[in-house]
Amino acid sequence: MMVMKRRTILKTGLVGFSALLSPALPAVAKAPSLLDPKLLAKAKAALETYDTSITHKDVIGIADYALHSAKTRFHLVDLMNGRTTSLLVAHGKGSDKKHTGWLQQFSNIPGSEASSGGSYRTAEAYVGKHGRSRRLNGLEPSNDLAYQRAIVIHGAWYVDNKMVSKHGKIGRSQGCFAFSETDLNQVLQRLGSGRLLYADKG
What we know:
Layout: H1 2-21, H2 37-49, E1 59-64, E2 74-78, E3 84-87, E4 118-128, E5 131-138, H3 146-149, E6 152-155, H4 161-167, E7 177-179, H5 181-190, E8 196-200
Parallel strand pairs: 1-8, 6-7
Antiparallel strand pairs: 1-2, 2-3, 4-5, 4-8, 5-6
């Protein structure tokens, strides 16, 4: 009995002494990025495909419409330093007719009020019925009517965290990339004219 007690004491003492020499590091919680690496790779491939159309290649925008509208599914990716800023973004009514928060389908048809997938080139900024906005040129058959359909970047009252907290989702646009008024300024600035915006459903 005495031997076992002495062994237990020695063992406990050694563990305690070891802990003093190598104190446990505090656990650091790191939120996982919602940016899908495969989607990023597709956006980078699009950047190469439309190289002559995209004037500035420092920052790209990626809308991951495979995610629910309550998620920060729009990513501003700085290709110079690898940093990503993720924001809320709305999809079109025609892509989610029952307002589930999930994009069901893309459409390029005028009047559909649906979102369109594919590669876009950001165009000129202007002030319209939604305030400060930026036009978009669709670069693919899936979105080549974007300019004609007035699919643009703009701010919207129905896109913010309060809407998510209250309804579990944000509102829908008429096919535009609608952001919260708080986030709009940085989107308009960082995605200035001549940059790539890529939208996909994963």
